[in-house]
Amino acid sequence: MPGRLEGKVAFITGAARGQGRSHAVRLAAEGADIIGVDICRDIESVPYALATPEDLEETRRLVEEHGRKIVVAHADVRERSQLREAIDTGLAALGRLDVVVANAGILPVHPGGRVAEDFVDAVDVDLLGVMNTVAVALPHLQEFASIVITGSTAAMMPATTSSSSMGPGGAGYGWAKRTLITYCEQMATHLAQRFIRVNTVHPTNCDTPLLHNKINYAAFRPDLENPTREDVLPAFTRFQAMPVPYVDPVDISNAVLFLASEEARYVTGQQLRVDAGCVLQIPGGSRG
Questions:
Q1: Which UniProt keywords apply (predicted)?
Q2: Could you tell me which of 76, 48, 41, 74 has the C-alpha nearest to residue 60?
């Protein structure tokens, strides 16, 4: 039985691990071939290790296990020329482009503040990286293509990453994710006549390295000197209305798959929360 994305090609940023890898594997399982990119090196302002070349090769292996083709490249979403080269290489091998998943993101949080460059890096990756991804993909998209952007529930809640304790990088992350809401709506409006859809998925805390690092643990448990994963689970759980500490990457991938598929052919300009009720219980939270 054909998959929901049979014959389609998806371009995914941040594909080496976490949500990006999950998206690549989930879409491949439904028939898509993949163009997957990742920076595959650390960024100085980010206080946790980013993906490695070996991580991207593991994504390749997992996609190929589903019998799909994949073209991978090391590319920094801050550099439009690198993204353009990756797409050109992918198109030469795979012949078309139907789905764009602008997923790459960082959270350069340093409690107590650090330097303004942390704000710049967060915005350059989390906002401009999305815009660069869409810009290089647009010339290759035909009618009924789908663009899916990774946002965050931090865009919909006051004083999460924007509190002074999270430093300039946290403020940049929150501002970038909030701006993506209106960016999505603008692009959806301007592409509607071409039947190209643009939607944003907003995860709550997700079980990836962006969540699981000592800086985030300290932010959730400031009462402890060196909190462990076990120490923060109760605090993580209180963050959601449903009694879970976080969602899994595949939960986000299932939403991405829906938005990429023909089942969502008239769904555009939407802000889809996958948040276990997180925003519902936060005073002042936006419904998006």
A1: NAD, Oxidoreductase
A2: 74
Contacts of 251 (CB under 8 A, 6+ apart): 203, 206, 274
Cβ 202 vs Cβ 288: under 8 Å: yes
SS3 call for 12? strand
173 is annotated as an active-site residue: yes
Residue 127 gets which letter from DSSP?
Answer: I
Report the Cα 193 to chain-centroid distance in Å: 26
Q: Give the list of residues 6+ apart from residue 194 with CB closer than 8 angstroms, or none.
A: 141, 143
Residues 25-82 pLDDT 10s: 999 999 999 999 999 999 999 989 999 999 999 999 999 999 999 999 999 999 999 9
Provide the 10 A C-beta neighbour count for residue 116: 13
* CA distances to 47, 126, 199 from 152, in Å: 19, 10, 13
- Which letter does DSSP use for residue 44 in this model? T
Q: Determine which helix (DSSP H) or strand (DSSP E) holds 132, and give its type and residue range.
A: helix 129-137
Report the half-sphere exposure of 24 (CA within 13 A, side-chain side): 35
What are the E-state strand segments in 57-196? 70-74, 99-102, 146-150
Residues 24, 90: Cα–Cα separation, whole Å: 14
Find the catalytic residue in 48, 173, 183, 266: 173
Question: How far is residue 71 from each of residues 88, 235, 239, measured CA to CA in Å?
Answer: 11, 40, 38
Place of tokens 């090391």: 74
Distances (CA, A) of 269 to 104, 194, 195, 255: 20, 14, 12, 14
